[in-house]
Predict the structure.
Amino acid sequence: MNLMSVFLPRIVLSLSLLLASASLSAQVAGEGARPSSAMAASAASAPDGKAPLPVEPIRKWAPLMKVNGRLLAKDVGLVINVDDPYSVKVGEYYAKARGILPGNILKLSLPIKGVLTRDEFDGLARQVDAFYGDRVQGLALAWRWPFAVDCNSITGALTLGFDPQLCKQTCAPSKQSRYYGSYSTRPYQDAGLRLSMLLAARDADQAIAMIDLGVKSDRTLGLRGAPPVNVHFVTTSDAVRSRRQVLYPPQGPVPALGLDVHLDQTDALRGVDKVLMYITGRERIDGLGSVSFVPGALADHLTSYGGILDASHGQMTVLSWIEAGATASYGTTSEPCAHLQKFPHPQALLLFYAGGATAMEAYWKSVQWPQQGLFVGEPLAAPFGR
């Protein structure tokens, strides 16, 4: 296989995409956080010289991220914590729902707590490596806790290896994923990365509902003549957390994919239906009860602590998206600062998904620096899969 063709990203196309590679270092969580010089450079002076005027980004579609094939149940390992009743119930349900091969199910003992120590994680990683070797391309982790290893997310640490240096300064750039923008459908074979996603929800019943949505979504979208589904890229009044708006594509219908793309300027969508994707930025998102998601929907918000699942920190977590009916989501487990590379690239996420990738593949292909990012959801959901 030509590795250059497999790993050559095709999403750096325009000024708006170029901004993604700038280091935007204002803290996401901090009160009074200010735009960085990179963002300030994209604004012009107002006529009175008192305040900058925002410059509308150049909106341009990247090429469709069409890949041949996707991950299947035989490619996925399922890890169950036998000491955790949630993990046992959700894991057993997932194995049946997706037909996970018995030989791909690893049962082990793990502390039921939010954050693992380095030694605890090393023990987990050794068991995973010894059991799976090169037999699987991805992992479904059947638990809510643990979700982190020190400052690393559990999915980041298991897929990329634990990075202790990042924990000295979590606002620093982190290592680039070799899978970012990749056309590979064999991440472990081609890049040495066993993708991972957490089957997390507020309780086991919600996790089972999430799994059912993923299974139900398969091969349901992008069909000729079917009504379009809606993609909402939202810019809120929170300027720092809305920085991904520079990466949004043009607004309007995309008939070839069965999509209708909306660029919304609001703090919260209300009363919208047939939602495939909801991408926004704010500490908390109101009105989720009035949003109707289609099976297989992806949704996330740029904020600091969306991936911290066991503590009250004043910010909404990914679990609220799952509770509202999304099938997969993403959030960070330690202060990332406003580096766009640490969050899903909106176009990459949408186009890889619409190109046939699973939820786990699309999310992992869209995050350039995913070490702190927690990937949550039903890994094999593939509404555009054929």
